[in-house]
Design brief:
Elements (H helix, E strand, L loop, with lengths): L36 H21 L3 H23 L6 H13 L1 H26 L10 H24 L6 H26 L3 E3 L3 E5 H21 L5 H29 L15 H4 L2 H15 L1
Antiparallel strand pairs: 1-2
Length: 301
């Protein structure tokens, strides 16, 4: 989730990407982060309700939700890369990404790893032959390196969000993960808008502030401490630790996407979600956070 949504860890009080010329004044429906705030809130509530209902009623539906989100996000990223003449193999990347997500259901981490390796191999062959047997591909090494990055960045990291529900009571793990991310986002946005004065990483995200980062820490630690204690009935120290690592990984996830978009000269990866940008603009902090949540809870519970 990049800085351009009211509930993103990087949205401590601004947007990312290139901004030529003076910034326009915010309108009544526009947040300080430069987004349509009512639309962003409505979309966020709708997505949250979908997740909650699915996890309560049929937890395995979570595989379908994550799979659909990753397929769309992969298409968005591949489209943006192709606009910059970076030819990632879209079809094997999207299909392989689904294998990475879904094979975690019957085979766990072994299925995820095997599907990821097969996806990388299929993309290597596809890109090698996509212009025919008599034409050597241009920029092959660059394109495949970026393809492997995208495969790891999206489906591989997302697979840990689905691996959570394979545990007994795993839907509760997902709730803890989602609530921790939302608390970090809301705390960062609120503190950044109200108090943000000291830029954190101005070269990558000019309006990301240390005050917003502190707000993320406070909210995420409190939220994770409460959810780990009340939902998982576990040691509150685990919750406090989880809150800290969620803020760190979420912030780094935001910065990674911000830098990718800055390299590509774009503001958003897509336009599917009003007030948020694309699906990928909603997932940037969630992807690494899913991995660390799975890691912390698997190791300590």
């Amino acid at each position: 989730m990049s800085t351009d949504s009211p509930t993103g860890a990087e949205r401590h009080d601004g947007t990312d990407g290139p901004h030529p010329g003076p910034a326009p004044a915010a309108t009544a429906t526009q947040s300080k982060a430069g987004r349509n705030l009512p639309a962003a809130i409505a979309v966020g509530v709708a997505l949250g309700a979908l997740v909650i209902v699915s996890l309560f009623l049929v937890p395995k539906v979570w595989f379908g939700i994550v799979g659909a989100a990753i397929a769309i996000a992969t298409w968005e990223v591949a489209k943006r890369l192709r606009e910059s003449d970076i030819l990632v193999p879209r079809i094997p990347l999207i299909l392989g990404g689904q294998a990475v997500i879904w094979l975690g259901w019957p085979y766990g981490t072994a299925g995820v790893l095997g599907a990821f390796a097969a996806t990388v191999l299929a993309c290597m062959v596809w890109r090698l032959l996509d212009q025919g047997l008599h034409t050597a591909p241009r920029n092959y090494l660059r394109d495949i390196a970026i393809t492997v990055f995208v495969a790891a960045w999206l489906p591989l990291l997302a697979s840990f969000a689905t691996l959570m529900v394979t545990h007994d009571g795993g839907n509760k793990w997902v709730f803890v993960f989602m609530i921790g991310v939302v608390c970090s986002d809301v705390g960062g946005y609120t503190a950044g808008v109200l108090f943000g004065k000291h830029p954190m990483v101005p070269a990558i995200s000019p309006k990301k502030s240390w005050e917003g980062f502190a707000g993320s820490l406070v909210f995420a630690i409190i939220g994770s401490l409460l959810t780990v204690t009340l939902i998982l009935d576990a040691n509150p120290v685990i919750g406090a630790l989880l809150g800290v690592v969620l803020v760190l990984t979420g912030t780094l996830g935001d910065l990674i996407e911000s830098q990718v978009k800055r390299d590509l000269g774009i503001k958003d990866m897509g336009t599917l979600l009003p007030g948020h940008g694309g699906i990928m603009d909603r997932l940037d902090s969630m992807l690494p956070s899913a991995f660390v949540t799975w890691l912390v809870l698997s190791a300590l519970l």
